[in-house]
Amino acid sequence: MEKATIFAAAQPEFDTFPRLIDALGLKIEKDMAVAIKVDFLQPCPAIVQPLFLALAQRGASPFLTDCSVPFGDALQSLNAAAMNGYVSGAPCVLADGVKGTDYDLIPVRGGKRLRSAKFGRAVMDADLLITVTRPAYGERGYRGVLYDLGLGCAARAGKTEVQTSGKPVVDQELCIGCGKCSAVCEHGGARLDPETRKASIFPPKCSGCSRCMRACPVNAIHPDFDVSDETVLERLAEYAKALCDAKMHAHIVLLDQAYASCDPAALDTLCAQKMELPEALQAAAKHALALGFGSEESEIVSI
Predict the structure, then answer these.
(1) What whole-number distance in Å separates Cα of residue 273 and Cα of residue 137?
(2) How far apart are CA 194 and CA 140, in angstroms?
(3) 207 exposed, middle or buried (CB, 10 Å; 0-12, 13-18, 19+)?
(4) Helix residue ranges per DSSP H, 31-74
(5) CA nearest 283: which of 243, 240, 229?
């Protein structure tokens, strides 16, 4: 496999980014749609504006994007963008739509856990995807480059598929039989038993969109998180691989300095070393490498 190039820059100055684009071998063409994947719920990184301007000066049409939160109001993410200082004048697009249901289904080639993946349509419509990741490690585990690809770019139904058993469940004791879940379900997945007046989820029809969960007035419907951490991380890696198989891509990660690469698994391996991550949290990168997605022999280039 061709060695990945990792770029390092101590300061995110404007003139750095045209050189970064060249160093990564990105061919920017006029009117090319470039999705810059950020996290609207976090403060805007300083590098986003010069990156956006460098792409625009090359003739591309860049936009900032994120997908909706897993189980809340989809517009929460878009509304947070302005509050968190995302670039004035840069289009901010909610990739999976205002209800979190606008996605494309793409195959997972060579996957061991999944056969397909659901990504926000705006991400799939882009000609080039660039992720900007500020890695974090805490109670919620490790959130790095593969996480930003596999979960950050996934539509709400994709997030549910990766993190849970894939379908919500109904607590029969809490259910009051109001029927609001079945009323909002567009696929016939949420059903109300006419005799017991209790709701249930019919898995073959459920898309995993979580609209029923938000509609339930007593919180009787919830995700089924009965899945191992290793399984979640391996699913995440397969989602990331599916997206990178389908799109031209590059990635920037912010550690002690900014690093960039076209190999997300290599960047997460670098983050694991620098952040001294426990072995269990490196399962996503290891699974990606086992699938032939990335290389352990990445050449690091500092500019």
Answers:
(1) 13
(2) 40
(3) buried
(4) 48-57
(5) 229
Domain at 5-161+227-302, CATH class? alpha beta
Rounded to whole angstroms, the Cα distance separating 175 from 171 reads 6
Residue 23 forms beta bridges with which residues? none
Q: Average pLDDT over the chain, rounded to whole?
A: 88
Contact predicate 284/147, CB 8 Å? yes
Find, among 143, 169, 96, the residue nearest to 240 by Cα: 143
- Mapped onto helix, strand or coil, the DSSP state of residue 61 is strand
SS3 234: helix
Q: SS3 for 94? A: strand
Q: pLDDT at position 222, please?
A: 84
Distance CA 140, CA 8 (A): 27
Are 207 and 158 a contacting pair, CB within 8 Å? Answer: no
146/236 Cα distance (integer angstroms): 7
Q: Report the candidate in 218, 72, 78, 75 with the shortest Cα–Cα distance to residue 159.
A: 72
Q: What is the pLDDT of residue 287?
A: 94
Task: Name the residue ranges covered by the structural domains of the chain.
Answer: 5-161+227-302, 167-223
Sign of the four-CA dihedral 158, 61, 136, 260: positive
Q: Which two tokens stand for residue 212?
A: 């029923």
Which CATH entry fits the domain spanning 167-223: 3.30.70.20, 1.10.510.10, 3.30.1700.10, 3.40.50.920? 3.30.70.20
Tokens of 50: 């010069």
Residue 19 dihedral angles phi and psi, to the nearest 5°: -70, -35
As a whole number of angstroms, the distance between CA 259 and CA 127 comes to 22
Q: Does 6 have pLDDT greater than 90?
A: no
